[in-house]
Amino acid sequence: MLLRVWMALISLVLATGCGVTANIASLRGKTPLPHVSSGPTLSVDNTLDLSTLTPATGKSPFTFEVVDGDATVSGNTLTPGTTPGDVLVKITDSAGTESFVKIPITASLDISPKQLVLSENGAYTYNGTQGVPPYSFSATGGSITASGTFTPDGSSNPATVTVTDSLGNTASVNITVNPALSSSLNHATIAANNSVTLSGAGGVPDYIYSLISGPGSINASSGVYTSGGGTGVATLRVTDSLGNTFDRTLTVNPELAASPSSARLLTTVLSLFSATGGVPPYTYTMGVGSAGTISLMTGAYTAPNTASADTVIVTDALGNTATSMVTVVTSVTLAGNRTSMQKGLTATFTASNGFPPYTYSIVSGDGTIDATSGDYSALTSGSKTIEVTDSWGVTAQWTITVYEPLVGNDFSVGTGETTTVTYSGGQPPVTAAILSGGGSISGLSFTAPGVAGTTTLRLTDADGNIADTVATIVPPPSFTSFSVNSPFTSANVSITMTGANYDSWCLRLNVNSTDGCTWQTGPLPTSLDITRPQKLYKDPKSYYAFLKRGNSIAAASDHKIFNSKFPLGSPWAAFDPKYVFAHGTDLWVYDAATPSVRKFDKHGNVLFTIGEFGSSKGMFNPLKGLASDSAGNVYVGDNVNRRVQKFSPTGEWLMQIPATPVGSTDNGYFNDMREVAVDSAGNVYVADGRHIIQKFNSVGEWQANIGSSGTGDGQFINIEDIKIDSAGNIFVADTGNHRIQKISPSGTFLMKFGSNGTGNGQFYGLKDLFLDSSGDILVLDESGLQRFSSTGTWLSKQVLLTSPTSYPVYVSSFTIDSEGTLVVADSNLMGIVKFDGALNPTPLVRRFSDDDGHFYIPQKISVDASQNIWVTESHNHRIQKFDNHGDFLMKVGSNGNGDGQFQYPGAIAIMNDGSFFVADYGNRIQKFDAAGNWQRTYPIGMRATALALDSAGQLYFTPLTGSKIRRLNPDTGVVTEAFDTAGTPDSGVFAPVGISIDSSNNFYIASDYHVLKFSPTGTFLFSSGGLGSASGKFGQVLGDAAVSPNGDIIAADQLGTAHIFSSTGAFKATISSSGVGRKVVGPRGIAVDSAGNIYISDMAKNQVLKFSPAGVQLFD
Questions:
Q1: φ, ψ for residue 8 (rounded to 5)?
Q2: How confident is the model at residue 486 (pLDDT cuts 50, 70, 90)?
Q3: Which of 104, 423, 851, 861 is the most buried (most CB within 10 A)?
Q4: Rounded to an integer, what is the distance from CA 255 to the centroid of its chain?
């Protein structure tokens, strides 16, 4: 028993350490030692039921007594006192047996630390202290972990954190939750010379401020930041008492500066000031006492008009300021004692104003100048610029014109002639006076005396320089002879030209003007090249020659028709009259084919020709309108060149209207000219495509516009013609409104007549009008020629005009000459035709006829063994025969369907014996002997479009429709199929139109855009040509094809393109190209003679043209 007590005491000591020493010591001396057990730990806030601690071996009832420590017992309940520590309780059972229990007492449960303020974005860890561990945590207004870390969520304020120990004791802390830590700057951007305060907010004060990166420094307590002169981006941090941080960036700009920092300006000059650094935006003001003005926002400064010292102040958004000093000065000026001078003299330049001293220099031109005195001399003539620079760099300039020394040009002038004295150098104006000799002078216009000799004249210029010149008085130039000699068989005609007293000469074709002349010296010419791009031959031409001596000019002219044998046909075949106008009995005619204006006498003889294609004076492009005045001058509307040209009755160029070119928006500008008219006072009226009439005076000055576009009275739509009566009233063919209007000289509407239709008094397609001597008005439209009284009352109508051969006359223009004869221009068929009072026609100029050697729609051609040329004419219903030189030999046939007659003959083929076959519209082929006598008719039941003979005398033909080539046996008259072109490559969709057979009996078939070659048995061999615009291609279906003795293939399409191909079908050369300048317009037939010369019939021009084997055009 005693041993157990000692063991228990040792255990208690080991368990409790020194804390129980006093208790044990107090028990010493007792025997045996007491038994001490350990009880549960309590806090001062708890009580304990001691009955739970009685020994199992004891016997109740038990009594309890605190023998050591701060506690009391009441019954079975132990209540700790306020002092923590161990409490020793003695337990005595009913047997008196004692036991001891040590109960540890702790202080009251608490929470640590006592942090009462947090930020909403922070977390904080709380711990339990004292009480009886382990602890658990709970919270309101946030979340808390098992380890005590609390995170506010902002749901309530204040928040609460509670700690609970193992006995259920609790301790709490109420927490104020502040906003998250942040900071603010009173300026986000500052200049390097500014400071800024960083202020913390939220979090848990107190705050500490620090500089994380960038220039400058910051006060840790006040948050005041200064850059220390540095620039860039600074990062500033605030830290609260819990260590939370918040960063903010600050931009530090350079210090504010004005640009430029100083300036020197001239008075009234505008200059722009700007700012850099500081904090935009900037404002600009003037300093006190400044005279200039400045824009508050833009910094645009305007200097005053007097010298001054100004201050420009720029202020930024933080109130920082910077200044710029402006010095305003009056500009330096420069003056010379001359504005012009003769080379070799000296000029002096003087500067004033600005800031002396001055420096003089040459900035353009040459010469020498004294940099200090300003004395200048030039080396060459021209414009020179002198510059002065003052000490501030301000400059001024002076321009002086230096001219060559005045030199008079000696000259020759014809006796009695007036000329202008010329000179070089000097300063205009220059005057002249006679020093010696005869004659008279007015300004620079010198009139020579009537006898030969010399006159000395003195010239004086505006600067007083003088020079003398000598006029040699000579006889004027004169022609001894001038003629253009025939025959005209090439592009070079022979000239006979002799004269006297000339220095230079000029030759021109169809232009009676020296403007544009290339004056040449030396021997007079003996030939003239008259090559032109189109329609060169069988064309009346006028040749104008000029001799010049000094300013005196002599002129001569000759007028001839280029009468080569080729092309075959009428000399007027290419004539295309569009306008005709009578003056007296003479006729002015515009020929659109050239283009030129021809003057005819009343018998149809060409008097002369003026103009050709071009833009120089006397040239046209093309004509639109033709009129003459009472003096016989002719006025020509030159459409593309936008002018009206005036010529004398002899064709001399006089002037153009408007007198000077004008812009497209100016009065006097022409837009698609329509017609020209002249009144008795010489005023010129021009109708153009803007539906107006422009009036000019006699010297070409614009006066007024008459009319406008519309349907009302005095308005027009598409003016076709205008004429002026003796009172100056204007009659207008108003085509778009189908009427004639009469307008007063002042432009006031007077009357109208006509309406749309083909009845009497109605108009359909107005063309032309004429005012006869009785006052009647003649009007031409598509339906005929109508006559009206002067008041517009309908009188009569001639529906159709016919020529002597009953061909219809398609009138494009008409006039009535002084004898009352009606003259019409027929650009379609006849040419120029006159009609008497009974409308009986008399041709003056015939484009075609049934005369020998003339054609009316030539078709196929063929060359016989004797090299004679045979031509079929569909509309003259005949065949003509020419020798190889183009001389007419005979004609065969007439209009009809009898034997030996023709109905539109087309194809021809000739036998070796001279007999020939002809096909016409009558579905037949006729045979004639070499003398042209009918022999036989073959009714073939179809129309043959081309014929060819093989070496055996078999006749082959192409039908109007279908692709089969037919064979006619001349002996039996039997027609059989030779072969079919259909299905062969490039055969096309149209029926073949041409056939030719070579010496080996190969066939050449013109089909669509190709020439197809077949063997004698009809086997396809190759093709040439094709559709296109490249070399060897055609733009239209072919009209015919032929083969040359050397195997070359010649083909032409229906628009004028003709090519030569080799015997293998390869392209060799082009004879004619379609478009402007084409040699052939409407090719229909092709033939080749034994020498390889090529003949092409042109149904559009009613000609047969001749070309060399290489495709060069021949004329005789």
A1: -65, -40
A2: low
A3: 861
A4: 52
Q: Are 378 and 366 in contact (CB under 8 A)?
A: yes
Amino acid at 14: L
Instruction: State phi, psi for 4 to the nearest 5 degrees.
Output: -65, -40
To the nearest 5 percent, what fractions of the chain are helix, strand and coil? 5, 50, 50
Confirm if 658 and 670 have CB atoms less than 8 A apart.
no
- CA-CA distance, 376 to 396, in Å (whole number)? 16
Query: 159 with 139: CB under 8 angstroms?
Result: yes
Specify whether domain 407-474 bears CATH 2.60.40.10: yes
How far apart (Å, rounded) are the C-alpha atoms in residues 552 and 546?
A: 10
- What's 532's DSSP letter? -
Instruction: State how far the Cα of 754 lies from the Cα of 737, in Å rounded to an integer.
Output: 9
Residue 891 confidence (pLDDT) above 70: yes
- Two tokens, residue 669: 């500008």
Alpha-carbon distance 766 to 736, whole Å?
9
- Backbone phi and psi for residue 368, each to the nearest 5 degrees, phi listed first: -130, 145
| Max CA pair span of the chain | 192
Contact status, residue 769 vs residue 811, Cβ threshold 8 Å:
no
**SS3 state at 22:** helix
Q: What is the pLDDT of residue 10?
A: 37
Q: What single-letter DSSP state applies at residue 648?
A: -
45 touches 109 (CB < 8 A): yes
The answer to whether the CB of 136 falls within 8 A of the CB of 164 is: yes
The Cα–Cα gap between 353 and 330 comes to 6
Residues facing 1104 on adjacent strands: 568, 1097
CA dihedral angle for residue 945, residue 948, residue 952, residue 954, rounded to 10 degrees? 10
Percent of the chain with pLDDT over 90: 66
Which tokens is 468 given? 């003398």
What is the per-residue pLDDT for 190? 94
For 216-316, strand residue ranges (E) read: 217-218, 224-226, 232-239, 245-253, 257-259, 262-266, 270-272, 274-276, 283-286, 293-294, 300-302, 308-315
- CA gap 439, 434 in Å, rounded: 8
All CATH 2.120.10.30 domain ranges in the chain, comma separated = 546-706
Kindly report, as residue ranges, where domains of CATH 2.60.40.10 are found in the chain.
110-178, 407-474
Q: Check residues 801 and 812 and name the one with the higher pLDDT.
A: 812
Tokens of 1072: 């004619």
Fold of the 811-847+929-1115 domain: Methylamine Dehydrogenase; Chain H (2.130.10)
Are 877 and 908 contacting, i.e. CB atoms less than 8 angstroms apart?
A: no
Q: How confident is the model at residue 487 (pLDDT cuts 50, 70, 90)?
A: low
Q: CB atoms < 10 A from the CB of 109, how many?
A: 25
Structure tokens at 655: 């002037």
Domain at 110-178, CATH from 2.60.40.10, 2.40.50.100, 3.30.413.10, 2.40.160.40: 2.60.40.10
Measured between alpha carbons, how far is residue 241 from residues 120, 181, 199, 208, 316 in Å?
14, 11, 15, 8, 38
Structure tokens at 290: 């400044």
List all residues 6 or more positions away from 773 whose beta carbon is below 8 Å from its beta carbon: 820
Q: Is the pLDDT reported for residue 805 higher than 60?
A: no
- 546-706 topology per CATH: Neuraminidase (2.120.10)
Per-residue pLDDT of 365-387, as tens digits, reads: 999 999 999 999 999 999 999 99
Q: Which of 536-540, 635-639, 722-726 has the lowest mean pLDDT?
A: 536-540
* Fold designation for 182-253: Immunoglobulin-like (2.60.40)
**Residue type at position 62:** F
Q: Residue 7 to residues 13, 15, 35, 764: CA-CA distances in angstroms? A: 10, 12, 9, 154
CATH of domain 261-329: 2.60.40.1080
